[in-house]
Amino acid sequence: MTYPVLDIIGLEKKYNDNLVLRGIDLTVNHGELICIIGPSGSGKSSLLRCCNRLEDISSGQVMLGREEVTKADTNLNILRQRMGMVFQQFNLYPHLKVLGNVTLALRHVKKLSRKDAEEKALLALTKVNLADKAHAWPGELSGGQQQRVGIARAIALDPEILLLDEPTSALDPELVGSVLSVMKNLKTMGMTMLVVTHEMGFAYEAADRVVFMDGGKIIEQGAPERIFKHPQHERTQAFLSRYLKEP
Fold first, then answer.
1. What are the angstrom distances between the C-alpha of 105 and each of 23, 69, 108, 156, 162?
2. Nearest to 209, CA basis, from 22, 63, 84, 37
3. Which of 39, 50, 125, 221 has a Cα at 20 to 30 A from 196?
4. Alpha-carbon radius of gyration of the chain
């Protein structure tokens, strides 16, 4: 059944006098994978950070289900369990093994017992094909494996939506594929995802919808086939000109 998980309504964000998000309207439905593309500085990462309140908005609303999460009294701990976030950098604790990194929030935020937290963590690690690395140190892993641990840490909390901010941008090119493969698998499992990415092939192949942003606005959005092969706006056409060969 399709229903809105995340609803962004008239969202604006200012840094001093600089308006970086200009009236963003976007709905993400249950089970959808939406890829946001666009040039650097177009407001893509700011949009994600406003959604889970890492940045305060200047005006507008963000709804998670039926709850407005941009209200002043929103419980941010609960919000960030419901809306998982994966960053460009892996942000793993080097002094904790993989299992410890994934169980940390489960034990200290969700207050699960060690046994229950480890069971959920191992299930999440299995989903990212890293159960065999549960007792490794982060420093023993490749960058792609560390990012997959970051994804496991987020999905272990059973979020309603996963926000991914350029999750492959810090990786060597040969490691990108393993992370993108995990994201595709999560989609098949029904995970709702909003992804900022420069991986155009992934956006074309995996997204249900592609959103093109520039200058703090959504310029156009639609099915990947239409956006990549028949972009309507001249700014989209200019940005995609180097990608318009078959992705």
1. 34, 20, 5, 9, 16
2. 37
3. 125
4. 18
State how far the alpha carbon of 151 is from the alpha carbons of 3, 25, 39, 132, 160, in Å. 24, 26, 25, 16, 14
The two tokens of residue 64 are 């998670």
Count of other CB atoms within 10 angstroms of residue 202? 23
3-state secondary structure string across 96-151: CCHHHHHHHHHHHCCCCCHHHHHHHHHHHHHHCCCHHHCCCCHHHCCHHHHHHHHH
228 closest CA partner among 26, 216, 214, 209: 209
Mean pLDDT, the chain, whole residue set: 94
pLDDT in tens, 193-210: 999 999 999 999 999 999
152-206 pLDDT, tens per residue? 999 999 999 999 999 999 898 889 999 999 999 999 999 999 999 999 999 999 9
